[in-house]
Specification:
The protein is of the alpha/beta class and about 250 residues long. The chain has a domain of about 170 residues: Rossmann fold. It is built from seven helices and ten strands. α1 packs across α2. It is globular and about 50 Å long. Bound molecules: 2-amino-2-deoxy-6-O-phosphono-alpha-D-glucopyranose. The site of 2-amino-2-deoxy-6-O-phosphono-alpha-D-glucopyranose has 13 residues, from loops.
Amino acid sequence: MLVIVKDNHDDMSKEAARIVADRLRAKPNLVLGLATGSSPLGLYAELIRMHREEGLDFSKVTTFNLDEYVGLPPEHVQSYHAFMNKHLFSHINVDPRYVHLPLGTAKDIGAFCQCYEQRIADCGGIDLQILGIGANGHIAFNEPGSSLGSRTRIKTLAGTTRLANAGFFKSSDEIPKYAITMGVGTIMEAKEIVLLATGFGKAEAVKAAVEGPITASCPASMIQMHRQVFVVVDRDAASGLTGLYNDTWDSDAP
Ligand code: GLP
């Protein structure tokens, strides 16, 4: 695990974008796992800039998003489909045929989840997975208590997670209670992982994920078992860490 501590959200985002762009240039048909939330916003903005100014090419990339709210159709403004279109897909040359997100309105959610897993496998697995982290240590919508071997499935959202998302919905009744999410086991099969976090609000979760015991009480702690993880955080999110960590990633390191 390579922990990289940057000064702020901007620098964190640029560092993460360097890693993504490096992998994409090496493998134009990269299979990219994507996340929603505020944490990857700067990364997406930087990837869009690289696409526009440096010709970073997404035309052969396949994407798989981590999760989606159950009940929200793709055109709902608070759906993760809409989020991804707004913050990334509509600004880059990704082929819509290669874009995958869980479908919150799937009639048979169990069958849908199985197909989603199969589609990932058919594409050769995820090369690089972007992750945020919830203040309670969740990754995607794998709330504390989620099996560390779990696969794509429906999950009930924690009360704190629903509260954290309350601002996006007009009334509390509208906040979805369930989500379809890749499992911890699904995420762990990605060949590489980049976990992003900024702000003091994430410090405890980052400490538990990086230095705490591996436990279902903090699903993000499972990254300690992964062979190739970059934890890219700002100083505030890193403020609980006691180890000595890096301030950059050396792309030329042998
Ligand atoms: C949501 C998402 C996660 C995300 C997390 C943190 O619940 N399902 O994928 O990582 O919250 O969000 P943020 O980056 O906005 O703090």
